[in-house]
Amino acid sequence: MFKNISIFSRIIKNIDWIFWISLIFLTSIGFVAIYSASLNYDNPMKFITTQFAAFIIGLIGIIFLASFNYQYYKHFNSFIYALSCLLLISVLIFGTTVRATKGWFNFGFFSFQPVEVTKIMLILVLSAFLDNHWKDIKKLSILCKALCITGGHIFLIMLQPDFSSTLSYFPVTLILLYVTGAKLRHLLSIILYGSLAMGIPLFVTFFKLQPELLRSHKILNFFVNATTDFQSAVLILGSIIILVFLVKWFLNKLRIPVGFVYPIIFLSIIIAGAFSSVVVEKSLKDYQRKRLIVFLKPEVDSRGAGYNIIQSKIAIGSGKILGKGFFKGTQTQLGFLPEQRTDFIFSVVGEEGGYLLSQLTILFYFFFVWRALVIAQHARDRYGSLVATGIATMFAFYGIINIGMVMGLMPATGLPLLLLSYGGSSMFSSMIAIGILLSIHLRRFNQY
Amino acid sequence: MSWSNDDKSTYNSFMDKYKNLFILFVLLFLLLSLKLFYLQVIQGTFYRNVANHQRLNTTHERAYRGIVYDTNGKILVGNESNYVALFYPFEQQYLPSEGTVEQLNQILNRDIKPFIDKGWRYGRVVKIADSLTLDEVFKIQEKKLFLPGIMVVKEPKRQYFDSIENAHVTGYVGEVSADELETLETDGYKAGDYIGRGGIEQSYDKYLRGIDGGLDLEVNAKGQHQKAFSHRAPIIGNSVYLTIDTELQKVAYEALKNTTTSKGAAVVIDVRTGAVKALVSCPSYDTNKVFTNEYRKYLKDKKLPLFNRAIQALYPPGSIFKIITFIAAMEYLKLNPNHIEECTGKFELGDRVYACSSKAGHGKINLITAMTFSCNVYFYKLGLDLGIRVLGKYAKLFYLGEPTGIDIPAEKKGFVPTPEWKKAKMKMIWLKGDTVIFSIGQGALWVTPLQMAATMTAVANKGVYYKPYLVEKIIDVENNNTVYSHLPETKEKIIIADNVWEQLNTALINVVEEGTAKRTKFSTMKVAAKTGTAQNPHGEDHAWVVAYAPADNPQIALAVIVENGGSGGIISVPVAREILKKYFNIQEDDGNTVNQKVHKER
Lengths: 448, 602
What we know:
The complex is a heterodimer of chains A (448) and B (602). With 448 residues, chain A is mainly α. Chain A has helices spanning 7-14, 17-38, 44-67, 71-75, 77-94, 115-133, 140-158, 163-166, 169-180, 184-208, 211-216, 218-225, 230-253, 261-283, 286-293, 307-318, 330-333, 345-378, 382-406, 424-442; strands at 96-98, 101-106, 111-112. In chain A, strand 2 and strand 3 (111-112) form a beta hairpin. Chain A is globular. Chain A starts with 6 loop residues before the first helix and ends in a 6-residue tail after the last helix. The radius of gyration of chain B is 35 Å and the shape is elongated. The termini of chain B are far apart.
C-alpha cells in the first residue's frame, strides 16, 4: 500500500500542521516584538539578526536531531549526565559574570548559556532513569535517587547563582515522577516541603515591606518576628505539633484509623521546611526576595521591586482590545517597560497587539504544548513518552510563569518566554527540544 | 497505539495521568487568558489613561489673574513675573539627582536642598528654585542637557498696591490645598493652582483666575522630551473694578491708626447706590508679605491684624441705637418730639439705678434735645413705653441681625436678642431692665460697623436700604466686553412716616451743630451724625460715630468705631471728620472745633 504513495506525500501527510503553524506564529510574533522593543533604544536590526541566526541554526539542529533516533540517548545516559554536570562546573570556572550571575561562556563573537542546554539534557537523563526504574518508583529509595539527579543540577546552578533557571526543573521533575507513577503523597510531601522553604522567607519579606500593616495587626507581627526570634518560633512549632496530634486524635474518634507514622512524617516535613527556609533566606538577596513576592501588591514598593510589574500591567492593560498598533506602543517606545526585549516581551505584544493578538499568542502557545503532549501520547515507547512529556511541561511552565509574571499573577522571576523572548541560547535550546520531539514523533510507528 | 515493549495496562495507567496533566495545562492557560481579558478588556480604559498620564507631561503656563482697579481706575492688584525652576518627576525619581542639584547650585550660587512635602503625589512637579533672575534663567537654559528634568517656567506673582490699607478688601491668593482640591477639582482647579483667600480675591475668584495655557510634551521614561503637541497661550483673568476709593481708604486708615488704641474700623457707603467707598479695618496686614515670615507675626499679634473688623467684629451699638429707638417712639407711640421729660442724671427701676451720660442730668428736655446730647434717661423711658417686642421689631426693620449681603466673604450677621432667646440660653426671663439698656443699644445686641453704615444709608434715604457692594463691573479684557455690571439692589423699603425722618434729620444735624459730634461741624456743609460710647465689660468702652452728609442732600453715609477708644464724641468723631474732609474736599481748619467743649454722652 505504501509503495503507491510517494515519499513526499507521505511526509506531507505526517506533518503536524497545528504544531508547525503554532511554532511559526510564535517565532514571528517574537521577531516583530523584538524589533519594536529595540526600535527607539538600540539598533533593532542587530537584535533581529542575532535572533534570526539562532533560529536558523536551531532549524538545522531540528533537522539533525529529528533524523537522529532518540532511543540512542538512553544508552549514553550516564555520559549525558556527566557532560551536563561538566558543562555546569566549567561555567563556574571559565564563565563570565553577567548581572552577578556566572552563567555564560563568552566566545567573543557570541556567548552561550550552558543551563539552556543542560535543562534539556536533564529531561533526557531523568526520563531514562525513570524508564529503567518505573516498576520501583513507589519505593522511596528510587524516588530519592530521581530527586538527586535533579538536585545535582539545581545545586550547580545555584552556585552561579541563577535562581530563575532552576525554576523549570521543579515542575518538570514533579510531573515526570507523577506520570511514571510515583505515590501522590510522596509528591505532595515534596511540594509541601518546597513551598514552606520558599514561602516563609518570601512572606516575611512581603510583610516587612508594609510596616503599617504589621503595626496594626499584632498576630501577623508575631508570626513575622518568629523568623528571627527563637522563642516565638518554638512556640509556633509547638502549637503546630499539638494541633496535628489533636487532628489525629479527632480522626481516630471518628473511627478513621491514622497511624502514628503519618503525623510524625508530616511534622518532620514542616520542621525540615522551616529550617530549610533559613537557608533559602540566606541564599536569596534582599532585592531578589522582594522581587519574588511583590507581585501580590506591587504598590508597596512602587518605585523599587514593584516598578517593573506596575509598568508591565500598564503596558498590557493600555493595549485594550485592538492594541496601539505595531511600533506605536507608548510604554514600549518610550522606555517605560523594563526588560522589554527579553522577560517582558509579552507586554510588548499586549500593548501593541491588544487583547486579540495576545490572546491569540496564548492560544498558539497552548496549541504548541498540546501537540507536544500528543507526541508523548503517540510515542512508541515509555522513554519517548517521558521525554516528550518533560519537554511539553518545560514549555508549558516557561509560558505560564512568564506570562503570569508580566500580568502580575506570578512572582517576578527572570524566566524568558520561550520562542518569543530575545536570546540566542534560549532560542537555540528551544529548537533542540523541538528536534527531539520530532525525532519521537517520526518514530511513533513501530513499522519505521 | 501503545508502547511496543509493554502491556496495554501500563500504557493505560500512563494515559490516565496524561489526561490529568492535560487538564492541568488547560486550566492554567485558561487562568492566564482570564487575567488577560480582565487587564485588557475590563480594565483597558483605566490602564490606557494611566499610560497616557505618565507619558504626557503638561507644562502649565499659568495665566495672569485679573487686575483689580479702584473707582478712579487706579490699580489695586496687579501681577509681576517670577521665574521658577521646576523638577518634573520621571521613572523612579521624584527628586532631581544629587549631581543635578550640585550643578544647579553651582550655576545659581545658591544652596538648594530639594525636598517633597507630605501632600506630594506621583506626577506632581516639585519647585526647586524661586525668584530667578533673567541672567540665571539663561544660564539654566544653556546647561539644560546636564539638568535632566529641570525646567524654567514663568509664573505670575500677585502684586498688591497700598497693600496694607486695602488688605481686608482685596484679600490675597494662596495655593489650593489638597483637601480643597477634592471638591474643587470639578471646577477645573488643579494641584499647585492659586485661589483667592478672603476679600475680592476669594469672592470673585472665578472671574479673576484666567485660563492656564500650556504645552503637552511626550516624555520617555528617563524624563527626556520626545515631541511637543500644540501650545495653548494662557488667557488673563477678567479685570475687576471696585467701588473703593483708595485715597479715601488711605485717609481713613491713617486716621484710625492715629487714634489712641489704633484699633477700629471705618466704612463709607454711597447712599445713592450702596457702593462701598471705603472699608477699613485697623490694624491691617501686608498682602504682599503673607507668604513670608511676617505672617507668623500677624498671627501672634494681639491686635489681630488679620481680623476684618469692618465686617466680622461684633460690637454693641451703644447710643447710636437711639436712632432706632427715636424712630420707634415717634412712629409707634406717635410721640410728640416736643414731649418733655426730666433727666436727673439717673433712672431708678426697682432696686437698680441706671445712669445718664451727664451725672448732673440734662434737666427738662424734649426728644430732639435728648438726641442732641444723647440723654439716656429720656430713652430709658421711651424704651419702657415701647417694650422689647416693639424695639426688637424696629431693630429688625433696619435689618439688624442679618447680613447686609456685601460681596466679600465671612460677613457676620450680628444679633438682636429676644425674651425667648434669653429664656432658652440663660434660663432667665426677660426683665424690664433688659429693655431699658436695650433702648440705648446695650445688652446682647451685636452689630458690625458695616451694618451701622448701611443703617445710616437707610436713614439718609428715608427708608431705602441699598445692599452694600464692592464690585462695580467686571470686564473681559480678552474680548473687551463687560461680563458683569452691578445694578443697585435695595432691600425692602423701611416704611416710616415722613415727619419722623424729618425730625430725626433735624435731631442728627443738631448732634453735629451743638451736641456730641461738634468736632465734625463744618461751616460749608451740614452733617447729620450720632455718636455712641458702647460699654464693654471686657475693657475700655468702644467709641462709635455714624453719620451722613450733606444732611440736606445725602451722598455718603459712614460708620466709624475705635475699639476701646472711650468716648465716641472725642475719639471717633475726628476720624469721621477726616473722611468727610477728604470725600468732600473741604479745606477747613480744624482749630475752631477742637477747642469747643464736648458734652460727654453715654
